[in-house]
Amino acid sequence: MFSRLKEDIQCILERDPAARNTFEILTTYPGVWAVIMHRMSHALFNSGLKWLARLLSNFTRFFTGIEIHPGAKIGSRFFIDHGMGVVIGETAEIGDDCTLYHGVTLGGTSWNKGKRHPTLSDNVVVGAGAKVLGPFTIGEGARIGSNAVVLREVPAGATVVGIPGHVIGSQHHHKATQRHDLDKKVGFDAYGMSPDMPDPVAMAFEGLLDHIHAMDQRLEEISQVIKDLGGDIADADLPEIDLEDMSTESTDKDQGNT
To answer: Containing domain of residue 107, as a range?
Structure first.
């Protein structure tokens, strides 16, 4: 019990730059209180004292704003940052070194008995406001972006954003481990996001622009063939579309709105 608590505190010192010392964490971090009380209620739940376990769980929710069903299984070095509004269902399973931010729900989509909540593998980060709903697995090292709604399995090392959630980046299993090692060196990816994470809207526009460029090139080739056959096509200079200029203008606008 105490060894796990020591690990939980150490992981907070590593992941939260606002954390200064052990005393501050123990006295001011509701996420730590919620995890400590859950480990106690989980032990009561497994001992058959289910009503007492639920009572302790509700007591914890009242004081922390974090609701963890005593039946949920949670691994080592689990960190709930800020914590308000976090809900973890009865059959949820969370691996080692996972992080959840405020407003996260690990919920179910069925009223049937049995497994109905998600399983988080090791080193998973779930960003603020994200909802992970259903009895599937989130692969090791995956990142769930803020406010995403995830309804299906996520491969290891993937990044998921949007409603419904879709994968915008994926890595093999060993790559996920390498990224976790890099996180320790350069800093933690807060809220399941990173500065170089691609914007899905920008990616869609770039895809459209690439398609337009390809069509222009094809039309030029067709026009040249018609000319070679003796046809008469008037030359027209079309304005160029510069992706770099558009990206720069978009960045300038974003900075101006900040």
So the answer is: 2-192
Do 97 and 72 contact (CB within 8 A), yes or no?
no
* β-pair partners for 73: 93
Q: Please, which residues have CB within 8 angstroms of residue 169's CB and are 6 or more apart in sequence?
A: 158, 159, 197, 198
β-pairing verdict for 131-133 and 105-107 = parallel
pTM over 0.70? The answer is no
- At residue 81, the pLDDT reads 85
Statement to judge: residues 103 and 145 lie in one domain: yes
Statement to judge: residues 178 and 204 lie in one domain = no
CA separation for the pair 160, 167 (Å, rounded): 4
CATH number at residue 104: 2.160.10.10
Smallest CA-to-CA distance from 136 within 171, 97, 165 is with 165
Count of structural domains, the chain: 2
Dist. CA 246–CA 153, nearest whole Å: 35
Q: Are 154 and 167 in contact (CB under 8 A)?
A: yes
Give CA 134 to chain center in angstroms: 16
DSSP per position, 76-134: SS-EESS-TT-EE-TT-EE-TT-EE-TT-EEE-S--SSS--S-EE-TT-EE-TT-EEES
Q: Say whether both 113 and 186 belong to one domain.
A: yes
The pLDDT of residue 52: 93
- 175 and 247: one domain? no
225 with 116, same domain?
A: no
Same domain, 113 and 66: yes
Residue 258: exposure state from Cβ atoms within 10 A (0-12, 13-18, ≥19): exposed
User: Over the stretch 135-189, which tens digit does the pLDDT of each residue have?
Assistant: 889 988 888 888 889 888 888 888 888 888 788 765 444 455 555 554 554 445 5
